[in-house]
What does this fold into?
Amino acid sequence: MEVKGEIYRVAGPVVTAIGLDAKMYDLCKVGNEELMGEVIQIVGGKTIIQVYEETGGVRPGEPCVTTGMSLAVELGPGLLSSIYDGVQRPLHVLLEKTGGFIGRGVTADGLDHEKLWEFKPIVKKGDHVAGGDVIGVVQETVNIEHKIMVPPDISGTVADIKSGNFTVVDTVCTLTDGTELQMMQRWPVRRPRPVKKKLTPTRPLVTGQRILDGLFPVAKGGTAAIPGPFGSGKTVTQQQLSKWSDTEIVVYIGCGERGNEMADVLWEFPELEDPQTGRPLMERTILVANTSNMPVAAREASVYTGMTLAEYYRDMGYDVSLMADSTSRWAEAMREISSRLEEMPGEEGYPAYLSARLAEFYERAGVAETLSGMEGSITAIGAVSPPGGDFSEPVTQNTLRIVKVFWALDAKLSQRRHFPAINWLNSYSLYKEGLNDWFTENVAPDFVPMRERAMDMLQTESELQEIVQLVGSDALPEEQQLLLEICRMIREIFLQQNAFHPIDTYSPFEKQYKIMSSIMKWGDAAMDALKSGIPSSEIIKMESKDELPKVKFEEDFDGSLNAVLAKMDKEFAALGGK
Ligand SMILES: Nc1ncnc2c1ncn2[C@@H]1O[C@H](COP(=O)(O)OP(=O)(O)O)[C@@H](O)[C@H]1O
Ligand SMILES: [Mg+2]
It folds into this structure.
């Protein structure tokens, strides 16, 4: 029920109202323009509201109304391909109504309420249905079948079920108690959608990015953070993950980053092709865009909105990947709102609840058995933008404690144009061991030991490099000089991967494995040659070794690799040795 109060004070995105009888997180219409806001604090007779739209010009004395409902999204066919703002208003509707993306007081449905969808029932009269059960399907895009589910808190016996073309607000199913079900359901964004139980992740998210899959894999249903300074590759990495990961659905949240970066995503994504199906990538993607010029309070809404959309598709039994770029901008919004509330600041001015909020967000990821017994997953990947790239700051540190994979971007690497600029020495994946069986069965029996060997070598390289800097590499024993050469190959051939090269941009596991084993093959043969008395300077001169880096860019990867490997055998044979 609507209760009408009055604005008492306006401080940026935070508005205080009096005369309201509100609950926490109630949605409010603020001021004459009915701006959208959410109750975030109630003190005495005062209700404090964070407003998701610009509050410029809003004055004390203007009306303020609570709706008695909390911020919720519309869930149903038509979500895929959509581009929304932080409160699920389609950007194209904002554009039509106001000529810009930051129109005020515009209400717009998240779903098109007029479009007809062909509903195919899969339950019949007399069937008992409960929350999460699929009552019918709609072909939402060419490749994604949208499952129409009973809302989590409803159950009963089907009295009537329809078949044919309907809008998302038409009743398609009636239960014997009179409950009417539509294809659309609403869900409050702050409340996680329920599942039967969470399961342990056992499969990797296959990303086609060698350093991610090969050295620091994230599990499907896992959590990962990509921290890095400006320009180090957070957005490119998340875009690569969106394009190439083997999930059925992608939710991409652009949160508080500059408009032009988001524009790249907005203009580029619709052009992209889904490598799994050849269809437009947007057909399995939902974009939620809250750029830096949009109101800060809506950043938080954008994160929850995106997560709720992801949960909804997980509930259909899909694997969903969710990108948030950048969680730091969300944290900064929390800091701003908190300081307006004059709360006791925690570290660096962030509120004390920063870590709890981040944890709640990542906890909504996971592999789950859905209410109806299907298996779905959400893999959550958050970019973190620490000022100056300093990982000791609170957002990075708090995120580190929560997520299980840390892909640490490094400004030194990006300056050297080593991309992806992920530092292999301080990145890690806590899923690695748990996924070993999968790698052994699905990639190669020796993939895991080979990966560990490469990691050890890179570790040794970093230690040797300190010596090299002091005395030069000539002072090292020949064996170590060769080791440095192998590590250079691991870095330049395996780890470096050009997101913008048509072939190199995606590397299937088989190719990853062949690249790594070719490097190791050269390395082992080189060490043998050294032992049999051939000087390292001779071994390093080998032509085939210098041809190996080019192979990953070739259309005919296997053909060129085999040619290089054959040449390598010949060259080693020609070196002779004892
Ligand atoms: N994997 C990659 N391959 C090639 N270039 C990359 C890669 N990752 C990053 N870059 C380069 O770095 C630039 C900055 O990356 P970006 O993702 O926008 O940084 P951030 O989001 O961290 O500020 C890109 O425009 C691109 O030129
Ligand atoms: Mg970026």
